Amino acid sequence: MSRLPGTALRQSRGLWTSVNTARPAFRNTLLSSTRHASSSSPQHAQSFLTSRASLAAFSCLTVGSIAWYTQLYGTLPFIGEVSANSPAEDGLHPVAYPWSHKGWFDSFDHASIRRGYQVYREVCAACHSLDRIAWRNLVGVSHTVDEVKAMAEEIEYEDGPDAEGQMFQRPGKLSDYMPPPYPNEEAARAGNAGALPPDLSLIIKARHGGADYVFSLLTGYFDPPAGVQIREGMNYNPYFPGGAISMARVLFDGVVEYADGTPATTSQMAKDVVTFLNWAAEPEHDERKQIGIKAVIIFSSLFALSIYLKRHKWTTIKSRKIIYNPPN
Amino acid sequence: MGLADAFYNSIVRRNSIYVSSIFAGAFAFGVGLDLGVSSFWDRWNRGRQWKDIRAKYSEAASE
Fold first, then answer.
1. CB-CB neighbors (< 8 A) of B41 in chain A
2. Where is the Cytochrome c domain positioned along the sequence (chain A) (predicted)?
3. Chain A residues with CB-CB distance to B54 below 8 A
4. Which of A4, A70, A191, A216 is most buried by its number of CB atoms within 10 A?
């Protein structure tokens, strides 16, 4: 590379255009000399297009691609779908909220994760488990080691067996997972009029609309509109598909008291708990975005480099001139 | 041309030096990119990360 003067590339482009204009003439002579050899080709093409085999092949191709499309996307393109579902039965679309971690370069707001943990612990943990989060996961994210140790120790875990084969109770450790509110699914259903409160570890990933949906759900309890019947023990929430949800409204202004002085309004608590649940579903989030920045930087400079190298290697070929001297 | 010649004569000529400068260059580039990206990240997200709010809680715990 160092041997080539900087103007070589620019010069080669000028040459390239002059070669180009010379080319059509060259091609024409080639074509005219071969034309009469393939004079039967139009007829040949005709019979190929009208043959039974090609009819069958095109039919198979059409049927196959339609089948493939419907299997991939469920419906045919450009054809309206008939559905018995009303928009209410699919649930209202949530608004896209400006989450503090929404942008490409935005990390989670860890003060919000800390408040959200408090809301989860004091409100949601009465019904919802958080299976996939261990105490140690909170360390360095929302709490210090000492705080997490103290919180874990307040909870009794069953361990064992000991030397006599007995199970025993011991205080929690950093490596223990978040305790479930109910021992099993049946107990959870029995405590909630037959409805199972889902585990919240991955709920943000498990619902269409993610964080926006859960926020809308928590803040979206209204009186049912005229004509909508809600069964005893159910609650009206337009964001929940079907509109009737077994979970009653749980967030009211002042349900928790934040240590950092943030006013605990309904929407503030909903925002905090959803940020916390979003962290629980994507604990790798902050690191992932940083690696993404590095990957984009490295791969785009490698891409630019490869374009430069390709043009550099091709200059000799592109600026080559082929001259045909017919023998006299 | 001067720079390219200097580069060629001092680094490319001996394979041992060439290879080891590639490794050293890759290492330095990796460290530099990490430092650059994380300083940008910390500036962009100032006040939001755990290290920005940690001081409040570790002091409270030790008191």
1. 105, 107, 289-290, 293
2. 111-263
3. 144
4. A216
Half-sphere exposure of A61 (CA within 13 A, CB side): 6
Tokens at A225, concatenated? 């509109």
Q: ipTM of the assembly?
A: 0.86
Cα atoms in the 13 Å half-sphere on the side-chain side of A277: 31
Identify the sign of the CA torsion B39, B40, B43, B46: negative
pTM of the shown model: 0.79
- The residue with tokens 């902050």 is A286
Q: Say which of B8, B49, B50 has its CB closest to residue A2.
A: B8
What is the Cα–Cα distance from B55 to B63, expressed in whole angstroms? Answer: 12
**pLDDT at residue A17 greater than cutoff 70:** no
Contact of A112 with A275, CB cutoff 8 Å = yes
What mean pLDDT do residues A10-33 have? 44
Binding-site residue set of A for heme c: 124, 127-128, 247
Q: Domains of chain B, with CATH numbers?
A: 2-62 (1.20.5.260)
What number is the average pLDDT over the span B20-42? 97
Sign of CA dihedral A78, A79, A80, A85: negative
Name the nearest CA neighbour of A124 among A285, A301, A269.
A269
